Amino acid sequence: DGISVEELESLCVRFATEAARFIRDERPDRMGVAATKSSETDVVTVMDQRSEELLHRLIQQARPDDGILGEEGADVLGTSGLTWVVDPIDGTVNYLYEVPAYAVSVAVVVGDAQSQGGWRPVAGAVADPCLRLVHHAGRGTGAWTSPENPADRADPARLSVSGEDRLARTLLATGFGYDPQVRARQAEVLLRVLPQVRDIRRIGSAALDLVRVAQGSVDAYAETGLNAWDLAAGWLVVEEAGGVVVGVGEGAHSAPGKALTVAAGPALVDQVRTLFVGPAAPPDAAR
Ligand code: IPD
Hints:
By secondary structure, the protein is of the alpha+beta class. It has helices at 5-25, 37-62, 92-97, 180-193, 206-215, 228-240, 269-277, and strands at residues 67-70, 75-76, 82-90, 103-110, 120-128, 133-138, 142-147, 157-158, 171-174, 199-201, 220-224, 244-248, 260-264. The chain folds into two domains: 5-158, 2-Layer Sandwich (Fructose-1,6-Bisphosphatase, Chain A, domain 1), CATH 3.30.540; 167-277, D-Maltodextrin-Binding Protein, domain 2 (3-Layer(aba) Sandwich), CATH 3.40.190. It is built from seven helices and 13 strands. The longest helix has 26 residues, at 37-62. The structure holds D-MYO-inositol-1-phosphate. D-MYO-inositol-1-phosphate binds next to strand 3. Its EC number is 3.1.3.25.
């Protein structure tokens, strides 16, 4: 319908910051770690759902013909060819414990974001309610950080990835899935990775990990098993900051997704990928 990338980007910023304000300002006081495990989890789930409902409403008011895919189950098939991919709280465990590293991720993509390949974000925003900032990008418009408050947005800061090219000097962010078997495999990989890099950070929000790569405040990020909503906005922010995001095992030109996602500057990304994938098995070791 002729909407521009810039207009989509400013919608992403508006929706993500509204939801970010909501989860910050409405965060229940009694969500502390003292409550029972199941009720804590419920409180987070309720806030997750309410944040997604808010995003859903905002998107449908502005863009009634677009699709919506959300972590909390939104799955609207649109007719326009554009789909909004939203994570209403990325970093839910941090949100639960009041560790100030969680975000709202909103992206608009072309293609089927539920498939392993073939989809691409055209605009995205990652709103950080704790720092009151929003990181955003549109395809071809660069990656920027702006204040959450629209009145202060005159002077955004441009993001650009670090130029690091040596693993031994790489500050690497990673994350872990929720499934215990997946975690066991991730821990095994770390045995090999940890001695090779400067250090590792487990920040707890994939969207903020990607933003950190874009800022150059970590050098690289790698995690297996991400979903589209975790990475859709951050992926574009990294690319527009001069970085590269690859989804290993899905072909060089397909979208990152279920397999290993690696984000870094161009001089580092292949080294990090090789580090995670491990040395190639010798031919005679096959059985
Ligand atoms: C999780 C966070 C975490 C990552 C997990 C994600 P959620 O998202 O991004 O950092 O390691 O893989 O599932 O569940 O908090 O939205």
